[in-house]
Amino acid sequence: MSDVRREATPEHARVSILRGSSDGGTRSAAVGALLAGGTLALGISAPWVSPFDPLAIVGPSLSPPSLQHLLGTDALGRDLWSGIVWGARASWLIGLTTALMTAAIGVLVGIASGLRGGRTDHVLMRVTEFFQALPRFFLVILVLAMFGAGMDRVVLVLALTSWTGLARVVRSEVMSLREHDFVAAARAAGATELQVAVGEILPNVLPVVTVLFGLTVGRVMLIEASLSFLGLGDPSVVSWGALAGQGQAFLRSAWWLATFPGAAIAASVLGLNLLGDALNERWATGE
Amino acid sequence: MTRRYVLERLVQLIPTVAGILLVSFILIQAAPGDPILALAGEHGDEAYYAAMREHFALDEPIATRLLTYVERLARGDLGMSRSQGRPVSVVVWERVPATLLLTGTALLFSSAVGVLLGVLTALRRGSGWDLAANAITLGLYAAPVFWVGQVALLVFAMGVGLFPAFGMRDPDPAGGWSAAALDTLRHLALPALVLASQQLAGVARVTRTTVSRELGKDYVRAAYAKGLPGRIVLTRHALRLALLPVVTLVGHRVGYLLGGAVVVESIFGWPGLGTLLLSSLQSRDAPVVLGIFLLVAGVVVLANLVTDLLYGLLDPRVRYV
Amino acid sequence: MIDAQQAPLLSIENLVVTFDTPGHGPAVDGASLDVRGGEVVGLVGSSGAGKSLTALAVLGLLPPSARVTQGSIRFAGVDVLKADQETLRRLRGQEVGTVFQDPLSALHPCMPVGAQVIEGLAWNRGSRLARERGTAAALLRDVGLPDPDVWSSRYPHEWSGGMRQRALMATALAQDPSLLIVDEPTTALDVTTQAQLLELLRGLQADRGMAVLLITHDLGVVAELADRLYVMDAGRVVESGSVGDVFDHARHPATRFLVRGRVPSRDATHRRSRTESPTLGKTLDVHAVVAPPGDAGLGVDTTAGEAPALEVQDLSVRFGGTRAVASVDLLIREGGALGLVGESGCGKSTIARAIVGLEAGATGRIRVDGRDVLTASPSELRKIRRIVQVVWQDPHASLNPRRSVGWAVARPLRVHRLIGRTKARLRARELLERVGLPGFYASRRPHELSGGERQRVAIARALALQPRLLVLDEPFSALDAALRAGLLQLLDELRRELGVAYLLISHDLSVVRAIVETVAVAYLGRVVEQGRATTVFSRPAHPYTQALFSATPVDHPRDRGSAARIILDGEVPSAARRPSGCAFRTRCWKAQTACVERVPDLLSHLDADHAVACLFPGAEGEADILRPGSLPHEGAAPYNR
Lengths: 287, 321, 641
Hints:
The complex is a heterotrimer. Helix content of chain A is 74%, strand content 0%. Chain A is built from twelve helices and no strands. In chain A, helix 3 (26-44) crosses helix 12 (255-286) and helix 5 (80-116) packs parallel to helix 8. Chain B has helices at 2-30, 35-40, 46-55, 62-74, 88-93, 96-123, 128-142, 145-159, 177-215, 218-225, 230-252, 254-268, 273-282, 286-314, 316-320. Chain B starts with a helix and ends with a helix. Helices cover 78% and strands 0% of the residues of chain B. Chain C has 21 helices and 24 strands. In chain C, strand 11 and strand 12 (282-286) form a beta hairpin. Chains in contact: A-B, A-C, B-C. At the A-B interface, helix 1, helix 2, helix 6, helix 7 and helix 10 of A face helix 1, helix 7, helix 8, helix 9 and helix 11 of B.
């Protein structure tokens, strides 16, 4: 099989998609941590930092940003700032849950495939290729069409279809690690397969997994936001995408409704990307 | 050897295609409650229910159902759309040109401009241009499509009034053929740019990385040492390898682009597959949703195949492995 | 002859090259050197001395982060540092040809090699496509490539290392430059291939009369080829002069370090003095006195025990359909040392892996301390792996980059659950101190250590379980010549002290010579000659062994051409296409029809302790054989030019 091709498959491109910021990484890491950490902190502390119940009518309809309502109100008079704070919680929860499941599947498949090689690898790679060919977004919509709306199935489908890139990167990492003498040295010293996988391989793939984990959180946030934007999310949950979708109708009269939720998503994803980028650079060069 | 590579790649299609058929089949069968309600909605049109039962062979044993499903798909028979009263294949097919125009334009634009931007920034690393481009692509890569669309609408359509905000062409059919084409182009510009934005950012960033990586390699130094001028070294040597990951990036993200097209079509009221998908979802017209899913899956599989074959053509190492 | 008064072709004066990264001194710090037309100048130094940067500065091809801050470079009257891009471009290729260090990465992977060879020529001289094809083949033929018509349309990954190096040479010579810069021409190559290329370079230089700037860390290469030499250390030229002078009267410590770091590879004991018979034009070899064993200054205890530490019988290893190792027998007595010598593809590393049970395709019998490796159950294998330990080839790859040095050293003890965490830490420090490293290194990461230090860590790790047998797989190949001597001494000490047996695998004869009593020479998966080191080194009986010994570069320029050199044709074939009968016959000058039909057995030769697998062994009629008229590259250039 063609390992050369695999080496240059898009996962590698994806890992490096953000690489190459010229400021050495520290500044972008700081900005990234600020952006992503900020929205994450908002989500965690939502009950304390949101001034109003995001679903309650607390003010005049469509009032522009003011001291009373920091980011204005929507058509029903609900506070947008409170919505965004609670939306952070929903977005991050979905992003993190999905990415955790993704990472677990991806690492398992990647290490098994890369370390065992041979038949195991062949079969796992066919399975990976299949999942890679599934159009995620459309599959989620099909599932929602057949099973009705709900965040649980969105998370499940996204997790089941998003691990392929991670698995392939881990696999190719493991394949090159496997050839390193330190793995042979561990084996020759009497280490079992498990001791090799956990003691030697895992610490070496963790950096790339961490980076991809961050990127996956961001990507899942984007997909979830798009689904909610189109009205395919859970109507009882306040999410950034849904807020932006509701703002679409008032684009002409209330610019703030569409602008702020989208900006919140962009900030979170940008933060995650910057952070992943900086870590990647540090680990790639500094080791 | 080349032939073996192509053949190998074609054989690999079989499990993928079979898997897609199986997944869609299982989804239909596993729907909660009576599958007919999930498939045909709860409107009480008994004649339509009967037709759907017949189409999906719901009264037959599971094996027969699967066979019937595959056989009908092979004939291009996707069933009837209830809301439109016409065959699904016809309903879906008539939306293809609009989506093709939108995504095709976005694909070409993002690839061409993305590569150009990537190469230029790679050659001027650290300059003001590079930093500005870096900030913009970083932002575009992180921004959700709908937000880019909304901001573009606010600024260019509603603010400046440069482009129409909605639809594919103006309602009044004045003017000849060329006027109509120009009108479509005017409508196309904004949604296509929005759809292209994220892809463009990705392509530009990957290109910048790969070009600057390749320019530091030994073979580039060796090419200079032969007395070749810089532009030849760049185009004949470095770009050939730098663009390989870009080819895969573009080819393997066709599904992603089509997903973005759904959002963009909904924002700009573009009469393509995306708007059809959303309206079918609202009217609980599951056969149409299924049809669009299968079509997109097919396109993605095909795009992956073309990408891999192209890769094999560009990189001799693959063919000879 | 070189006219000393003639204006230099290339003149570098007081060159300073600095990197942008702050906190580092200049990488090249005031280097000056001259190259006159037609002379061969060596630029020598250990890695990081600034040799390659100096050469790149001549071409105006420094990496973007490096710049020339001082000095001047003049080439044939052109001020290189002030020249514009177009002038520089015309200089490159047409005036200065360059052969880069790593031939694989210097070739574009997606372009046929022939096209790359003539690319510069085609651009600068504008020849038509039809003619180019023939041109490429002709250029490749000039550098001794067989079947250039076939090969020129193939891609680099299909070429072997030696062929790629030839392709680079053809590329550099295509535009007939007056100066050829050659950067580490032989580093990545096998000994016999290296000899071929040095011979080729010698011939090309003589034919074309061009000047050559030879960059290398290997004094042997300089001793073979150069007229004059400059020694660089930490960015400065610390010594220069004619090769003979520098070798005889090295003044600077760096030079002495390089000279002394070379373990003598062919000392007087086995060097053949050559007497020429002028009438016949043939070479006659006369054996010099045979010296006692282990005379390389590292006293070896030859009283090895009787019980075997390692017994390998009829070992074969298959990868799929190809046999990488074919019925190999080896025996090492307790506390003894066996050297396994051969070039790439001879299966030596595979044998090492098989001994510790890492090769699934191994058949035959391997007994370590009486226990059978190949039939062992997983738990038995774990026990065996406490008795035999391996020191791997590349110290950069053999230590886990994400684990501390102490973790690595104690890992074997922890894997076998022999020791608690705190005790393991103490033991690791002890072991590090035993191999001559400070104990506090335990908390360091491998990347903070130098190559030599890392190799010591690897040895400490291998000793952790107090093994009976240590397999050393090319332990020095990744190290600078100067570091080898110290490590050799350590290994020799450890062996005497701990009574551990060594299987030392190497392509480097000098290393093997220094510490083993018995030696086995392998070619393409088979042992072709085996015996006491002294016997094999002084009276090699297999033609391959003879060629291998003869291919090693000389130690001193005065020995240049003192021995008739056997230059083999071609390269080691791949194991997948093993020739029938004797595998060496395709490159052997003695080969006859019998060699095609029969695989020669390893039979004792003259002496019970000396076995050879050849149908026509020994030195009989060597005078005829060593200068076969059919071989294109023969003999040696005279030293006194």
